[in-house]
Amino acid sequence: MMINGIEDEDKWLAEGIxxxxxxxxxxHRALDANNLREALKYSAQMLSExxxxxxxxxxxxxxxxxxxxxxxxxxxxxxxxxxxGVSIVDLYELVQHAGNxxxxxxxxxxxxxxxxxxxxxxxxxxLKDLVEMCRGVQHPIRGLFLRSYLAQISRDxxxxxxxxxxxxxDSVMDAVEFxxxxxxxxxxxxxxxxxxxxxxxxxxxxxERSELRDLVGKNLHVLGQIExxxxxxxxxxxxxxxxxxxxxxxxxxxxxxxxxxxxxxFPDEYHLQTxxxxxxxxxxxxxxxxxxxxxxQLMERLSNYAASSTDVLPEFLQVEAFAKLSSAIGxxxxxxxxxxxxxxxxxxxxLLTFTLRVHPDRLDYVDQVLGACVKKLSSKPKLxxxxxxxxxxxxxxxxxxxxxxxxxxxTLSNYPRVMDHLDNETNKVMAMVIIExxxxxxxxISTADQVEVLFELIKGLIKDLDGTAADELDEEDFNEEQxxxxxxxxxxxxxxxxxxxxxxxxxxxxxxxxxxxxxxxxVPPLIFSALRxxxxxxxxxxxxxxxxxxxxxxxxxxxxxxMIESLSAVPSPELALRLYLQCAEAANDCGLExxxxxxxxxxxxxxxxxxxxxxxxxxxxxLIIGTLQRLxxxxxxxxxxxxxxxxxxSAKLLKKPDQCRAVYACSHLFWVDDQDGIKDGERVLLCxxxxxxxxxxxxxxxxxxxxxxxxxxxxxxxxxxxxxxxEKGNPQITSAAIQGLIELITTEMQSESTAPNAxxxxxxxxxxxxxxxxxxxxxxxxxxxxxxxx
Length: 790
Hints:
mainly alpha, 40 helices, about 70% helix, protein transport, endosome, ARM-type_fold
């Protein structure tokens, strides 16, 4: 009976070791004196210490090792017949007279080892005799260590092919039979060990039992090393016997360990050729056995075997490895009704990894694995288990990593069906994995059908799922997700304008469901894709008729207008205004005046009705002026209307300095420096004079409110505009006007009311140096500047 007292166990162990040492001392004296009778007497007394039932397996092992070391010395004595004068046959009979069975069996095994070496009897007969007689010890711990001793002393004396103990043609089978019989008996003892001792020490005992597993497993290692065990013998004799023992023992610890041993010990080729037999045992194992790890290790070994040489791949096809593994996994999942969902998905991940490594060309196999996973997931509600979610992400990521081509995944019919079983958060994680794969491998998604499937896969990023509102999300994460979608849109391209338009329409249909927070991220890249298409059509100088909509610039501009309107409704007016101006510029390049005018009109409407912030107004009006200045498609009437609006809004800005700068920027609208550009010198001068008046008013206001008129920066900026138009040949800008402005600035700077400002002083000084430089340069420009005094 096992005692739960560590101190008592230590005491008993110490007593046992002391007794072994005491008897070993007298045994050594007898050996030195070549006294066989005394040697057998003291060795039997020494071995009697192993009869104890008080020690745990761990402590018993320490005691056993002390006795084992002494038996080595005894064996050396038995080998030398000249020392004891008894033939080995007589000695084999003599030791069987020991009083107790345990010492008798240890002595018998020791003499048996010498008996086999003497070759006075066939090795198979001696081994058979020993393995049968060991049945006399049925106590689990004592029997296990006794048989371990038998395995240890016999491992180099088996009648194997090429061994010095090889007998007749059937000798290999005899060796196998001996090892199998010893393995079977050891496993029975090992399994029975769990029932030793009271329930309160069961957990500790189970741990120690686990530590003894190698004693049993060594038999399988020996089997794997027997040269004569070829594939035929392994298939017909070894594997069925081992599996029968594993299944019948009905112990989860033994079943898991021994299945793992089989996979690790025997060659990969044998596993492949006996796959059906090996897999057939899996559903028969106890429900508590970790079958998923066993099968995963088997598939990993087979994958590595396939990767080792292309020559072995036909074998996999010949034995239909995929079909057998797939079927076995299905049976295991069916048999183990309580297997957690993460276990089932882990099995499918291993099967998919195997498939991708062994049959990378068989996409139908990949889809089949995903389909089996869908079937399993369908029986459950949405996944809650975090580990299961990670396994599904691993399952879906595997094809992307293998093929480095997300388009492959788009052809798998079950891929989106697996994603449908993910919760919203994990769905988004997987969508990001897909996008990252596309970005990393520069995958071009080039058809509308592919785009439709892709956007169905990443729908978690482009619209709210099942009531998950976008405003519930972390802002930084949300922005990162949407920027990824925006980058993805830039990867969608086709050289065929008709197909590219279909792609744009497909994406538009998807992203328009995204809600107000997403549209500012997803609409701009799509608009630029459409603008790229317009320029592509322009370079081809023609329109392409599609099935649904003709790919004409006019039609595309209509689509663009719809998309930007959705942005202004978000509201995101500043972004919408920028995009309207981009479209106006594209319409200008296509020579479509009405379209360009409409986009400008929309931009002005937005400016009037939606943009209220003064800083945003300043930015917007400069964008409008800059874009309008570059466009040349407008007739006189339309251009006058737009420039009048721009100058009007410039003069209505809130702050005087902003007004001034916007008004002098408008001067460029009346003087476009190209061959056919407008050159209206009078209106340029009007703008600049108006800017001067506003600058003067700004100085006076500053004087009233602050007691000083502030820096003269605005005047210097206007002076620079005068110089620009003077050099461009505007007849209304004369040297006298420039001279007057220089004098005005000089006077202002010398005024006591003007606050000193180093930046504006340096700006003015730099401008004067420029004028001086132009005067000194000579030539036509030098002559123009002659009359300006600085």
